[in-house]
Design brief:
The protein is mainly β and 127 residues long. The chain contains no helices and eleven strands.
């Protein structure tokens, strides 16, 4: 699965950004759980959000720090996922990666549960 993320940029605190991730020519997109992770300088890659595959009911998972501000959605017909990020804070500054895999639900937040990764897109939030 080839993943291409886009939509990053530099914004002021309080602004919004919309990240997209497209899976090229993927006929089995709906069978993958899709996730976003982020990596800030000097830190490990961290879970942000996920939407599970159809067989797991398309459930959404969020890390606590972004609940109420970020929303993740998927469009299986278009092989895309979107991460709508509102009320951005300086702590959200990181490189954001989209990922695809078939982890069990308890492993959705673990980077090791995802097989495929797109190149990251930089999000910079200045206060």
């Amino acid at each position: 699965v080839q993943l291409q993320a886009s939509g990053g940029g530099s914004v002021q605190a309080g602004a919004s950004l919309r990240l997209s991730c497209a899976a090229a020519s993927e006929q089995t997109f709906s069978t993958y759980t899709m996730a976003w992770f982020r990596q800030a300088p000097g830190k490990e890659r961290a879970f942000v959000a996920a939407v599970t595959r159809n067989s797991n009911g398309g459930k959404t998972f969020y890390t606590d720090s972004i609940k109420g501000r970020f929303t993740m959605s998927r469009d299986n017909a278009k092989n895309t996922v979107v991460l709508q990020m509102n009320s951005l804070q300086s702590e959200d500054t990181a490189v954001y990666f989209c990922a695809a895999g078939r982890p069990i639900l308890s492993n959705v937040r673990n980077p090791a549960g995802h097989y495929y990764w797109g190149e990251g897109t930089q999000v910079t939030v200045s206060s």
